[in-house]
């Protein structure tokens, strides 16, 4: 069994969150909208929102790194399977309704589910190139 590469997972989480934010800027015209929302909703301020947002990205990348070897499909598809499942379960069915935006954010806009999924697809890109490089290598076995 392959060991989790913590360094690659952490770097992928930070880079993925940056890409997530860039896609968000392209679609919403706002930089760091999620950290602002986190800081506002928790009452802990914008700086907390930034650390919470990026910390969440790192935690998701670590979680992906741990379960990636057990997902099916080519190594480059696995991050998309993971972020799609994560977006549906945690964002569309939990976070957005909790924020009053309705299931998948449809009370906000018909584009909200599309934008949230595209943002998470952008997050997946560093997972492909950093974390999944270890998956492409055949596992070394000790023969007796």
UniProtKB/TrEMBL annotation:
<feature type="transmembrane region" description="Helical">
    <location>
        <begin position="110"/>
        <end position="131"/>
    </location>
</feature>
<feature type="transmembrane region" description="Helical">
    <location>
        <begin position="44"/>
        <end position="68"/>
    </location>
</feature>
<protein>
    <submittedName>
        <fullName>Uncharacterized protein</fullName>
    </submittedName>
</protein>
<keyword id="KW-1133">Transmembrane helix</keyword>
<keyword id="KW-0472">Membrane</keyword>
<feature type="transmembrane region" description="Helical">
    <location>
        <begin position="9"/>
        <end position="32"/>
    </location>
</feature>
<feature type="transmembrane region" description="Helical">
    <location>
        <begin position="80"/>
        <end position="104"/>
    </location>
</feature>
<keyword id="KW-0812">Transmembrane</keyword>
């Amino acid at each position: 069994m392959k060991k989790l590469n913590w360094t690659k997972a952490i770097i992928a989480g930070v880079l993925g969150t940056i890409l997530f934010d860039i896609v968000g800027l392209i679609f919403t015209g706002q930089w760091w909208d999620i950290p602002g929302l986190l800081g506002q909703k928790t009452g802990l301020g914008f700086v907390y929102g930034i650390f919470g947002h990026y910390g969440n990205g790192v935690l998701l990348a670590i979680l992906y790194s741990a379960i990636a070897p057990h997902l099916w499909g080519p190594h480059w598809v696995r991050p998309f399977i993971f972020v799609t499942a994560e977006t549906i379960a945690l964002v569309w069915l939990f976070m957005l309704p909790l924020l009053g935006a309705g299931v998948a954010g449809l009370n906000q806009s018909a584009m909200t589910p599309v934008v949230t999924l595209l943002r998470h697809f952008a997050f997946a890109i560093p997972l492909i190139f950093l974390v999944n490089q270890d998956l492409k290598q055949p596992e070394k076995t000790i023969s007796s």
